[in-house]
Design a protein that fits this description.
This protein has 196 residues and is mainly beta. The chain is built from two helices and twelve strands. Strand 7 and strand 8 form a beta hairpin.
Amino acid sequence: MRFHEALRRTAESVFSAFTLKYREEGLTLKSGEVWITAKDTKTGEEKEVYHSKNIIVNTASILIARLLKDNSEPDGGITYLAVGTGASGWDLQNPPQPQNYQTKLNNEISRKAFTTENVTFVDPDTGDPTTVPTNVLDFTATFAETEAVGPWVEMGLFGGDATDLADSGTMINYRTFPVLNKQSSMTTTIIFRITA
C-alpha cells in the first residue's frame, strides 16, 4: 500500500501540461475536447467553427512514465500542437477516425509551441480559466494568416523531446476532422482541452 500511496502523491504533483487520475489499478488519462475557430482577418467573420471529442493516444503513457521516473528527462510535458493534411488518398470531407495507436501525423505541415500564457487551468464547474490547479487544462494555439496555409484534416499534441521539427516528440493527443481549408486571409485558433 505504501507504493500505491507514493505513486498517487507523485502523480498528483506532476503539472507537466497534462493531468493524471489515480485509481487502485493504475493511472489513466481521459480524452478531451477540441475547438477550432477560423476567422477572416479583414471582416472578422467566423468562417469555420468545429467542436469534437479527441483521444489520448497510447504513447502518452510512455511520456507520463518518463516524467514520473525523472523530472529532468524529458524537458517537458505537452509543448507543441501540429496540424496536417492527412494521408494520400484520404476523403478530405470524411477522413478516417483517429486511432489510439497513432504516433505522428500522416502529413504534418506546421506546428506551434505552447507558452505558459496559452496553457491554462480551467474551473471544471464554470469552464472559466483559473490560476488554481484543477483537473482540466486548455492548450491554445493560434495560426496567423500566412501560417499553415492548406487543407487541414488532422492535428495532434506533442511533448517530451518535441521540437519545431515535424514528427518530433511523443504524440499525446490526436484528432481527424472534415477538411478546414486554411487560407492566407484567415487566423485559426485551436483549443485542446484535457480532463482527468
